[in-house]
Design brief:
D-Maltodextrin-Binding Protein, domain 2; 296 residues
Length: 296
C-alpha cells in the first residue's frame, strides 16, 4: 500500500525555514487532521529535516475546511464534499487522498435498530462528507427518508431520542471497539457493498493563490507527504508504538486500522469519488459533480 512514486526511501529536499539566509521563505500553513486516520500522513513528516518550515494547524475536518477556504491555511486535507462546492478556489494533489476500499473502522453508524429500520439520526458536526455518505446510503440503498439533527450530547444520551448516531474519527473507534451497542455499522463497508467502489473521504488541496505564488514549494510538500506515508509503511512497529502512546487503543487494533487506510489516489479511487459526487447530486446535497483540477 505504498505510494507508487517516491518510494526510494530518500527524503525530499526541504525549503529553508524562515530566518535561514538568502533563500528565506515564509512558513507554510498546513492543515493537520487531528484524528488517528491522519497519523501516518504526519508522523513521517515530523521525522525529517526542514520540519520548522511548516506550521501544522490541528483540527477536525469541518474546522480545517473552513480555514482553507478562508485563506488561513495554504495546504490542507479537505472533505470530499467541501471540494465539490469550492473547486474554483482550490487545486488538488494528484497522488494523495484519504480513502478506504471497504472497511474504514472510523466512520460508524451506532444504532438501536438495524440499518434498514433507521428513521432518526443524530449527526456528528465534524465531517460533512460522512453526513452526505450516510444520507446517500439511507436514501438510495435502503429507500429511507430519515430525520436528522445535530449531535449535541454523548452517544448513549443521543440514542434515547434517536434510532442512531453518526460518529467519525477517534469517537467512532472508541464507541465501536470500547463500547457496547446493539448495532455498529461501518459506512466504508456499506458503500463498498452498494457501489463496488472505494470511498474517498478527503482530498489534499492547495489554494490557487498559494500555488500561483509558490508552485515549487507546493510540489515539495506533496513529495514530503508521500515520503511520510512511505516512511510509515516501512516502519510499522515504530509508528504503531508511537500512536499507542498518544491514543487509547491496543497496538493490534492500531496496526489493523492503519492497514485499512489508503492515502494514494488511483484511477479506481477517482471513480469512487466521481460516483459519490454523482449520488450526492442525485439527493440534492450538491448542485453537480465538480471537475477535478490538479497541480501541474
Amino acid at each position: 500500500m505504498k505510494p507508487e512514486e517516491n518510494n526510494s526511501g530518500a527524503e525530499p529536499a526541504m525549503a529553508p525555514a524562515a530566518g535561514q539566509g538568502p533563500q528565506e521563505t515564509a512558513t507554510i500553513n498546513i492543515g493537520h487532521f487531528e484524528f488517528l486516520n491522519g497519523y501516518p500522513l504526519y508522523y513521517g513528516l515530523e521525522q525529517g529535516a526542514g520540519w520548522n518550515c511548516f506550521n501544522l494547524v490541528r483540527g477536525v475536518p469541518t474546522y480545517l475546511n473552513g480555514l482553507l477556504l478562508e485563506g488561513k491555511l495554504d495546504i490542507s486535507p479537505i472533505s470530499s464534499i467541501e471540494y465539490a462546492g469550492n473547486a474554483d478556489k482550490l487545486l488538488l494533489f494528484p497522488r494523495l487522498s484519504i480513502t478506504a476500499d471497504g472497511a474504514v473502522d472510523s466512520i460508524r453508524l451506532i444504532s438501536r435498530v438495524p440499518f434498514e429500520k433507521v428513521s432518526s439520526v443524530a449527526l456528528t458536526g465534524q465531517s460533512a462528507t460522512s453526513v452526505v455518505l450516510l444520507k446517500i446510503l439511507l436514501k438510495q440503498k435502503y429507500a429511507i427518508d430519515a430525520s436528522f439533527s445535530q449531535l449535541e450530547s454523548g452517544t448513549a444520551e443521543a440514542l434515547e431520542s434517536h434510532n442512531a448516531v453518526l460518529l467519525i474519527g477517534d469517537q467512532a473507534l472508541e464507541a465501536c471497539f470500547l463500547g457496547s451497542w446493539d448495532y455498529c455499522y461501518d459506512l466504508g463497508i456499506e458503500w463498498k457493498e452498494f457501489t463496488g467502489l472505494p470511498m474517498v473521504f478527503a482530498l489534499w488541496a492547495v489554494s490557487r493563490d498559494f500555488f500561483a505564488a509558490r508552485p515549487d514549494e507546493t510540489f515539495e510538500i506533496e513529495e514530503r507527504l508521500l515520503y511520510s506515508v512511505d516512511y510509515c509503511r516501512s516502519h510499522w512497529d515504530e509508528v504503531v508504538a508511537a500512536a499507542a502512546r498518544e491514543y487509547p487503543f491496543e497496538t493490534e487494533l492500531l496496526r489493523a486500522y492503519f492497514a485499512k487506510l489508503r492515502y494514494d489516489f488511483t484511477n479506481e479511487f477517482r471513480l469512487g469519488l466521481e460516483e459519490y459526487y454523482r449520488r450526492a447530486a442525485d439527493i440534492g446535497a450538491i448542485t453537480g459533480a465538480p471537475e477535478l483540477k490538479f497541480i501541474s
